[in-house]
Amino acid sequence: MKNEILVIEDDAILNQLLTRQLVRMGYKVHSANTWEEGYDYLTVKEPRLVLMDVHLPDANGLDKLPELVGQQPVIILTAYGSVQNAVQAMQAGAAEYLVKPVNLDELELTVQRVLANAALKFECDFIKSRQRSVKNNFMVGRSRALQEVDSLIDAVAPNDITVLIQGESGVGKELVARAVHDRSDRSARNFVAVDCCTLQEKLFESELFGHERGAFTGADRQKKGLIEGAEGGTIFLDEIGEIEPTIQAKLLRVLETNRFRRVGGTKDLQANVRIVAATNRDLEQLSREGSFRQDLYYRLGAFTIRVPPLRERRDDIKDLVEHFLHNHNFSRRINKTVTPAAMKQLNGYDWPGNIRELKNVVERAVILSRDHPSISVEQLSFGSSLQNPANEHYHLTFEEEPSLEQVEALHIKQLLERYDGHRMTVANTLGVSVRNLYRLIKKYDL
């Protein structure tokens, strides 16, 4: 996007001088003679920088600074010798100030510095607030199934098309998405992961697209969304099948036009991002049932990568176990191995929670084995089949004939206890989405 600058200066000669010089520097410039003209422009456009005089015919520039700060940097223009105005401007949030008569060389250096600092600050703030701690940003294993996934990543990464990653919970869909990003031309920019399960519709819309000041109660200032934070990079929408229909429609518009609007906004903004989505649900079936837009499904499914569950790539279990042990041992400096009997147990388990469950089992075993050099069968603790055979039953007991809701509530409660509160596993067991499980937990106050 071009660096567009707004100049608000009532002195016609100075306004013209500043405008011409900024245009020569390669910037797109809009000039205004009053605060009202400048503000009208700001309601429909979003410049990267504002140059504003302190004394305007219809306003004091210092009084108007709070309305601009936080949306774009502001350089204040002040009369020669008015140090007090300059100090007040900096305290109110101005990025810089220039003293009249403006030196054109100083103007050029100041504008370049302010724009560079603003871009750097936004990048650093965004990374600091949104970056997740992902130590293992690669797939571990040498199985044929994993090699096929790797080959698909290599094929699609250089092509800037939307990718849909399908697979059960815990198989490593985010790692695949990150690999697509890392091998693409966008690798130097942000990779932003968004969990579509965790936020309500309005909050999710604001998080994804951003919002304007006053868009809703509590929106006291403009907020840039994740799409803007991923500018030039990749946005990863995890569990895309959980988003609401209104968000589906807006996301489809982004895919079709590369444009979007913030919540409460009237301006179209450019979306220079690659979208990678993931789901553990059958989007094709959901689209046939009408709960997921068919046109969005076709857009997302331009290139699909299926990540196999761990039970289909058992050859990788040994490598994964060694990888988790190495990472754990790095921090504790204790070298551990796994006994043949324990490894046999690990290989024989079906891993309904996939790699995430394997990691939890290994880390728990490391803790339970204390200072012993190896992990034995006794330290292994599984969520289901090895500890709870398939033919094992459990009972729901009531003092009187229960209602259907009472049965449902108790069943969910026991599953949460059985799987140590692992909601994704419970949702898969119940055959519902994680979002629906959250609603049931809230409904029954579990």
UniProtKB/TrEMBL annotation:
Residues 139-367 form the Sigma-54 factor interaction domain. Keywords: ATP-binding, DNA-binding, Nucleotide-binding, Phosphoprotein, Transcription, Transcription regulation. InterPro entries: AAA+_ATPase, AAA_lid_NorR, CheY-like_superfamily, Homeodomain-like_sf, HTH_Fis, P-loop_NTPase, Sig_transdc_resp-reg_receiver, Sigma_54_int. Residues 4-115 form the Response regulatory domain. SMART domains: AAA, REC. GO terms for biological process: phosphorelay signal transduction system; regulation of DNA-templated transcription. The modification 4-aspartylphosphate is found at D53. GO terms for molecular function: ATP binding; sequence-specific DNA binding. Pfam families: AAA_lid_14, HTH_8, Response_reg, Sigma54_activat. PANTHER family: ALGINATE BIOSYNTHESIS TRANSCRIPTIONAL REGULATORY PROTEIN ALGB (PTHR32071:SF113), TRANSCRIPTIONAL REGULATORY PROTEIN (PTHR32071). This is Fis family transcriptional regulator. The lineage of its organism: Bacteria, Pseudomonadati, Pseudomonadota, Gammaproteobacteria, Chromatiales.
